[in-house]
Amino acid sequence: MNVERIKANNARFKDANETIREHAARLGAEMSRIPFLCECPVEDCVEILRLSSDEYAAVRDHSDYYVTAVGHEENEKPVGEVVSRNERFVVVLKAA
Question: Rg of the chain's alpha carbons, rounded to an integer?
Fold first, then answer.
């Protein structure tokens, strides 16, 4: 996989998720988990991850952390490494 394309996908999905978070906050969404997009480097990935506001904020507290669907971490190897995981999602540190 092309590293530059991976980085472009990372930025696109992260920006989209920030928009989702902003809309959920503005609307006062009463969801225990908000649907976010998988931030893996696969262009046609459509996996939806459900994170609480606090879980998502913890990922965004680190500018180089991304949230990825379980099983998608293999696609991260050219630019990232897993820093944490649970049964719903994986957090990946991706080099700038």
Answer: 13
Q: What pTM did the predictor assign?
A: 0.79
Judge contact between 45 and 79, C-beta under 8 A: no
DSSP letter at 70?
T
CA gap 80, 60 in Å, rounded: 16
CA distance 3 to 53: 30
Q: Write down the pLDDT at residue 29.
A: 61
Convert the pLDDT of each residue in 69-96 to its tens digit: 999 888 877 788 999 999 999 999 987 6
Chain-centroid distance of CA 96 in Å reads 15
Amino acid at 48: I
User: Comparing C-alpha atoms, which of 61, 36, 34, 55 is closest to residue 46?
Assistant: 36
